[in-house]
Structure formats: structure tokens, C-alpha cells
Amino acid sequence: MGFVVCAAARIGSGKRKISRRQQRHELKPRTKPIIRRTDENSKDVPLEAELTMAVQKMLAIEKLKRSLWESTGREPTLLEVAKIRNTDVDTISRYLDEGRKSRHALVEENLRLVSSIACRFVGRGVAIQDLVQEGACGLVQAVEKYDASKGAKFSSYATFWIQKHIRQSIYNDSRSIRLPRSFQDKLLHLKKAYKSIFDEYGRIATLEELSEATGFDQKVVEHLIVASKSVQSLDMPVDGDGGQLVTELDRTEWEGCGPEDTICREMIREGVHDALNAVLSEREKEVILLKYGLSTEGETRSSEIARRYAISAAGIRKIELRALKKLRTSNSLQLFLGAV
């Protein structure tokens, strides 16, 4: 009966039943947050300066340990470090532990800043996950280099290092064939000028307009336009016959000429051209190339060659025989044929 009355009284009072675990949790004093929030009314939270000071103490101890390791050839103990700093082992251990926790807290609290900055660089050839990872590396470097006595906010200081690491990642990893950083800066400047001209006039900019807007020479602009083209992989699927997806390598092999054959053919053609240039005159070389199909036009009849040079077919035949005689006694051609 007494239990029923107590339960009815508890329900009638409108109070929520609290377990012993919840009571212990509410009675336990809450720990202070380790990062200063934007709420200025909270006065009992530590500043970022205290955290960075703890990080600097940890870095100083780690630097001392590295120097001792280099001098002694082994990892120093905390006792040796404590003797050099005129303190005890517990203090050194506490500095290291507090420094690591403070660094982790600063990095974890500012990861949203990294994400917001990385989103600005999306679409430049690097995945957003890689941009965030590089930005996090820059954030760690900012935590280790930040000096609160300079008066700058940590977020402003960290933004510089985050952007620096992200830009460096774009410079190194955005293209299959890496371009020099100065060249990529010019290319970015050219793209901005192209976009501004397109937005203003609604048409594609000419070379003269791009050269005037960027201050570059027209040849430099042409070179930048060629370099801006992306490199496509031969393994990238393309549409084949019947809607089937194939690669460029498969298509080349189906056409009867594999990539190895193409490279060998081009090398042989270049070697033949070099050998002909070393022995024959310009007209003799052109006649041999056309007659035996060594040019891109394929084999050409003597009558067509004679019509092109406005001489008789007998004259073309004499030029051919004279060129063949030179080639038979040529050392450069013999060396090339022996190498092949």
C-alpha cells in the first residue's frame, strides 16, 4: 500500500523518475571544453593560446629528443631529457601528453574549416577527399607553427597553410603530365581572362584578345592552349561497333596495327629519313620517298612524280637510279639496316 501511495505521489507531482546512474552523472562536475567557442559569455573556458603553448612545449621536447638521438645514436630516455631541462620525468611526461591532446583538439575542432576551404578548389583535377586530406596536413602544420603572441586569430593563420597545401596538391597531382608551377599559374591566368571575355561578349575569345588581356605573347598563348588539353588514357572505354564499349588499345588492335607495331614503324620511318637526309639531295630524297611509299602518301607512280616536278618520266628514272647508287655505297644506311 505504501509503495502504491509513493508511486501515485511521484506521478501526481509530475517529476521524472531518475535512475542512480543519471543522478551520479548530474552530480559529477562537467569538464571544461578545451577549445574556446564563439560564445563570449563563457569566461571559464581556456584560450587557444594555452593549447598552442602546450603544443610548443611538446615540440621543444621532441626536438631535444631528436638532437640527442642524432648525437648518441639511440633513442634517449625521459630521464635524460628531464636532466637536460632541469626537471623531473613526470613533468616531461605531462608536457608530452598535454601537447598531443592539445594538438589533436585544435585539429579536430578546425576540420570544418578544412572542408569549407577544400570545396573552393573542387573541379581542378583532384578529388575532394584528397583535397581535404592535404588541407588537414596543412592544418597540422599551422597548429605546430602558430604563435598566439603575434595577435592573429588561429583560423586566419590556419587558412594560409591549408590553402598552401591544397594548391601544392593541385599543382602536383591534377595532371597526368606535371607542368611547372609557373606554367600552371600562367594557365590559370589565361583561363580567367578567357572566362571574363566570354562573360562580357558572349563568344569565344580570339588569340589577340587573350594576348591583350593577359599580357602574354600570342605564341605563349598558343602554347598554353595546347598544354591545357587533358591527357586521355588508352584504357578509357569508348563506343565501338554495335554500341559495345571498347578501349582505344582494342580498337587499334582490331584495325590490324597494335601500339607496338605503330611505334616500331614510326621509329623505322624516322631512321630511314635520317639516312636519306645524310646522303641524298632534297629532290632525290623526295623521289625515293614517293616511289617506294616511304611517305604518308604511299607508293606513287613515276608518271605522277614526273607530272608533279614537270619533267619526263625518264628524268625521274635517272634521279631514282642515281639516288639508289648513292644509297648502296652509303655507310649511314648500312649502319641503320644493320641495327634494324
From TrEMBL:
Pfam families cross-referenced by the UniProt entry: Sigma70_r2, Sigma70_r3, Sigma70_r4
GO biological process: DNA-templated transcription initiation
Domain RNA polymerase sigma-70 region positions: 106-170, 186-244, 278-328
GO molecular function: DNA binding; sigma factor activity
InterPro entries (alphabetical): RNA_pol_sigma-70_dom, RNA_pol_sigma70, RNA_pol_sigma70_r2, RNA_pol_sigma70_r3, RNA_pol_sigma70_r4, RNA_pol_sigma_r2, RNA_pol_sigma_r3/r4-like, Sigma-70_RNA_pol_init_factors
Highest taxon of the lineage: Eukaryota
The keyword Acyltransferase appears for this protein: no
Keywords linked to the UniProt accession: DNA-binding, Sigma factor, Transcription, Transcription regulation
Record flagged with keyword Transcription: yes
Protein family per UniProt: Belongs to the sigma-70 factor family.
Protein name: RNA polymerase sigma-70 domain-containing protein
Species assigned in the record: Rhodosorus marinus
